[in-house]
Each structure stands twice: as C-alpha cells, then as structure tokens.
C-alpha cells in the first residue's frame, strides 16, 4: 500500500464560485495523480505550532500526461478552523500542506461501461464535477446525467460549465433542483429532491447505471433510499457524505 506523505502546495490562482465558495488552483510538485472522486487532507499550522486538518474533495480532473496542478473548491463554514482561512486569507504564492489522494471506492472508472448518474447536494457537487471533467478530458463515451440539488441560484457552483452542459453537453445532461428559491420563470417550484425528479432526470433502473451520491449526510441517505425505491441495485450506488445528520 502506498504511504501518503504531506506535500507543500502553492496557491497559483483562485476564483469565487459563490459568495462563500472559492476554487483554489494549487501547484503541487511531484503530485502522484488522482482519480475523479478522490479527496485530499489539508493541514494548516499556526505560528505557535497548533495544527488543524480537514478533508476536501478534488474538483479537477487529473490531466493526461501528468502535471502538478490541482483544484480544490472550498465552502466557508462560519465555525470552521480551516475553511475561512482557505477562502478569505490564503493568497497567491502562499503555501499549505496537503496529503493524498485519498479514497478508492467513490471514484469513477472510465473502464466501467454503462451510464452514470451523479446526484449532488450543495457542495457535494465538487467530486462529481471532477468526474464530469474527467469524462470530457478522456473523451469517454459513457453518458452522464447530473441531478444537482441546491438552495438558490446564488448557491450554484461551476455556473459557466453547467450552463454549457445544459446547452448541449455531448453526452452529459444536468438538471438543477432548487430547494428554497428558484430563478424567475423556473418551471418547477422550489422543493426538496424527490423520487419524481430522480425518475424523470436520472436513469431508469433497468439501464443499470453506476450512481454516485454526494452531499450532507441527511441528503445522501434520503437520495440513496429514493434510488433503491426506484429499483436501483444498492451495489451500484456509491455514496460520499459530510457533516452531521
């Protein structure tokens, strides 16, 4: 088993996805590569030696032929020890420590045939976007469908890319479910993700899709149960969750 080591990562660029979520573009020398869906551990060390560590999903696809750039999309948590520093303080040229990649179950394998269903709740879209990007980078043929649940239009991550997908994603379809407020003229009133939305915008169970569900614990449990109720094989449902229940 490969031993994970801490590496210095330098911020080379950053962009805001929402008012509370920032994508960090990091240069990580000797990065070993990663699979879409994996995450890293990030460690901060204060001048007095105090350390805080959190895990963040990788947003970027591993570039063909290798490379040292890595993207993390981080949502600021009001009571967080790490995320406020990463979103509001970390500047170009600053360094952090990271370790990874971590995870081997919640990953998309380009060699597995058949359609893919991605179900995201809030910031749970980050590792799923890595899968969408990897599919495009590899020119893979498996059709993807993304069902993305979010509170409001202001909470939408990766807006430009998802708008392009909605205009014609060349094998990728995206559907947004707004839970609290929707854009003017949106055809469906705000509400929680339900079986009807998954049945209409996901894949039918007899298509035997590989399903990836990511988001807060309560969302993931609900969405996974809905998929099972719709007839999906539990062995084909992979979940990644964060936060309390």
From TrEMBL:
FAD-binding FR-type domain segment(s): 4-108
InterPro entries: Cbr1-like_FAD-bd_dom, FAD-bd_FR_type, Flavoprot_Pyr_Nucl_cyt_Rdtase, FNR_nucleotide-bd, MRET, OxRdtase_FAD/NAD-bd, Riboflavin_synthase-like_b-brl
PROSITE patterns per UniProt: FAD_FR
Record keywords: 2Fe-2S, Iron, Iron-sulfur, Metal-binding
Molecular function, one GO term: oxidoreductase activity
Required cofactor names: FAD
Parts of the chain that traverse the membrane: none
Protein name, as recorded: Ferredoxin-NADP reductase
Gene source species: Kineococcus rhizosphaerae
